[in-house]
Amino acid sequence: MDLSGEEARVDFVIVGSGIAGLYTAIRLAGHGRVLVLSKQELIAGNTWFAQGGIAAAFSAEDSPELHLEDTWKAGSRFGDREAISILVQEAPLRIRDLQEMGVQFDCRNGSLDLGQEGAHSRKRILHIGGDATGRELVEALLRKARSLGVQFIENAFVTRLVTRDGCCCGVCFQKGRRCFLLTSRVVILATGGCGQLFKYTTNSPAVTGDGLALAFRAGAVLRDLEFFQFHPTVFFPPQGRPFLISEAVRGEGARLVNCRGEAFMKDYHPRGELGPRDVVSRAIVSEQRRTGGPVFLDLRHLGADFIQGRFPTIYRRCREWGVDITRELIPVSPAAHYLIGGIQVDLEGRTAVPNLFAVGETASTGVHGANRLASNSLLEGLVFGHRVAAAAAQAEPQAAGGADRDSGGEGLPATTEAERECARLREPLQALMWEKVGLVRREEGLAEALRRLEGWRPLLEYEFLVPELQENRNMLLIALLMTRAALWRRQSKGCHYREDSVPGEDLSRGHISFAKEDLQGIFKEYF
Ligand code: SIN
Questions:
Q1: Atom of ligand 1 at shortest range from CA of 337
Q2: 230-336, what's its fold?
Q3: CA 245 / ligand 1 centre spacing (Å)
Q4: Cα 450 to ligand 1 centre (Å)
Q5: 117-136, pLDDT tens digit by residue?
Q6: Catalytic residue positions?
């Protein structure tokens, strides 16, 4: 794409290059000029690292209705049944689309090799290359998108959504030291969640909640932010990034054992290792505290040939850190994994801002309720990507004219002191969120977190020219809203676990939503 003019126009801008962004781009390719912006390299997001797979009802014993019930129950009966019904009914169609693009799901004896994961009543997880599902998918989708003429710009950090008469009509982005204005008929956010809010996470370093913050500043509504899922089994190498050990490993029969070699999951949930993720995560932490030692995953009984064939990536990565999983135990601990809530959208991905859409983890369609069923997230990107593309293709372009003055959240130019303070923000914020707004929450801890976050709140007033600082500002905003929501929801629900939950209280509480105009009021009430 020619960026020489610093101002350009396309029909559709998609921010984010994971499964949701790429699939939406492919579906829009016949409807105009499509440009995908990625803030790092195209493969830097979470999809690339996805192992487990994609859930869809394919076996003779399965049906979309059973998939719906499992999704609904996993979400603590808080999900939107219409949205879930769309997800599960359209799942097989979208899988066939992928197969037509050349994606080859793993087969056994001539049929799809369907895996098992927690809280699924049937085997329904499709995977590719054993545990390389995300990588294979991104490669196939990129090939297809390029063949259809979709354009890409890497290392493009979106600083602002541009609105005119309240309607989204483009983005401002930074690449290197230059700033660009890109006008478009429609903007689609496919920016993923906000796992980097927490000190320990499975998420890519790129996942800092930028899409959520951009949408919020432009006038969209955020909801269900208190629901954040922690993955139970993450391997923490001595250096480098934490590495997910897929739930599919437990689906194939791997056991969790404490440092005394005792299997313990049956003491915590009747489904043992395949209980809900939040239950398994808390059980691990409880065993670590009770025994004073680590917790391990034990795969050894599955046999070396099976392990290396079914989980080649996990085998190789653990080997790199000196653990031979065919003969040795893998030390595991929970880490932040997936944002259940996000930008509130309708069933075609429309936000409250005309011509601004959201899809994938950054969107809140209601399919996940209060907790997500394993392997429904790649599926959500496909199913709703298809629907978003159909709706976006029909969106009316805006009449020409100048951008709104308050166009999606310009702040004051940052002072040197604000820059310094913002540069120091990330580590203490991540530590605070992990300790006080993590897997187990209590009123006092949440209130303390809110007080400390509130102390940093003046930084929200500034706009920073350095992407890392702007990311910190975005993280601060989402951390404030998440903590506020977690305080408000006094009863445990789904993956929001309040140790001080009062049984019977708050039963009727619906969604907790935030809009820009509430920002002052939200915090005034508490202090
Ligand atoms: C996993 O492979 O355990 C993660 C898949 C998911 O989060 O759905």
A1: 7
A2: Flavocytochrome C3; Chain A, domain 1 (3.90.700)
A3: 9
A4: 30
A5: 988 999 999 999 999 999 99
A6: 277
